[in-house]
Amino acid sequence: MTAALGYCMAPATRLILSANISMLNPKESTPCSIVSRRISREVTCILSILKNWCNLTVMTAPKLNKPFSMIREFHLADWFTLANAVCGTGALFSMMTYLQTNDVRHIYFACGLVLAALIFDVLDGRIARWRQKTSAMGRELDSLADIISFGVAPALIAYGCGMQGLYDRIVLAGFVACGVSRLARYNVTAESLSGGENKVKYFEGTPIPTSLLLVMVLFIAAWQGALHESLWFGKVMLGGFTLHPLVLLFALSGSLMVSRIRFPKL
Fold it and tell me: How far is CA 95 from CA 100, 101, 111, 155, 195, in A?
């Protein structure tokens, strides 16, 4: 840009020099020299304006984003939210390992990781209020972490424990969809529910972390050996497809999440 500007300014500079030379020779005060002097003054004014504009442009030009600038923008609470997501992902890995090895300890690991995710989920909110630093990205990050730890992970634990019939899969998928819808509604209405304060006074529908209760039920079932064919309440055949009545707890939980029932926030 500077080179192009210099190229455009070169003729004007030559014109100013020629006009100044004519001004040094008073005998040459012809009409042409008078016009040249006027033009030189106008051009000098224009060049001064262009120079000031160029300096202002350089000063106000946006700086290039540094590598990993997004990570540098994270608040302390956001790191706890990421720990929540990591725990939920670890629970998924544990259940996939259980399906390969049939080692019940991996169910215990998965349930324990969901509990750890809840602890991080509680801490990130408290830290954000303590430091009085919240952001739209932090709220979205929290929702994405919650859907992994308290939506997908409990559904996969239930599937690994034996709820693998067609109707079971439909209910578990619906449970995850209800969790996603619940979090989306919360993000949209959080500002209005807070009443202008930083803290929401109540929830519409049960919060998705309440799915930890379902995970604890499955933990007890695994502890007692009530898995697969021994799953509590047995199974029902409907139209040639399997339904485990225990999966209806997930249907109830999902329905409560998308309900309009108000629950006070502790």
Answer: 9, 10, 9, 10, 41
